[in-house]
């Protein structure tokens, strides 16, 4: 089923996206903000280095879809069902499995944290290498 994002993501493209997503820096930025266009522009730029031509909107859509699919598989598993599964579940579980609990406790006391805009600028240099 083609979505408005254009052509289907290949397995390698999704792997590359997950590899970038698994970067602690990217995860922290994504956790801290809803307005994440600039983060996905960085992600798209890093995919470009792998020879993958995706714009930030495609990256964000794929990220949201993977996250949604992961959550539905995870909740099915938590309720005892093993019939639901997905490709890349283990990779996503490594990224998302630990932060769901952390996020729940973090959201109670994150007033002390600095806004993500302050930390975004320094991460630009990390993505050059």
Automatic annotation (TrEMBL):
Residues 7-95 form the Myb/SANT-like DNA-binding domain. Residues 108-129 have a biased composition (Basic and acidic residues). It comes from the Eukaryota. This is ZSC29 protein. The gene is Zscan29. PANTHER family: HEAT SHOCK 70 KDA PROTEIN 14, MYB_SANT-LIKE DNA-BINDING DOMAIN-CONTAINING PROTEIN. Residues 100-129 are annotated as: Disordered. InterPro entries: Myb_DNA-bind_4 (IPR044822). It holds the Pfam family Myb_DNA-bind_4.
């Amino acid at each position: 089923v083609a979505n408005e994002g254009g052509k289907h993501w290949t397995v390698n493209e999704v792997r590359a996206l997950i590899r970038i997503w698994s970067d602690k820096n990217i995860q922290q930025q994504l956790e801290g903000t809803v307005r994440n266009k600039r983060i996905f522009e960085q992600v798209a730029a890093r995919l470009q280095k792998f020879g993958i031509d995706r714009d930030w909107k495609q990256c964000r859509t794929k990220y949201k879809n993977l996250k949604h699919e992961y959550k539905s598989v995870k909740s099915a598993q938590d309720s005892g069902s093993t019939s639901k599964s997905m490709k890349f579940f283990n990779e996503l579980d490594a990224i998302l499995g630990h932060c769901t609990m952390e996020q729940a406790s973090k959201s109670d006391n994150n007033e002390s944290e600095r806004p993500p805009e302050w930390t975004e600028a320094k991460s630009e240099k990390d993505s050059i290498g």
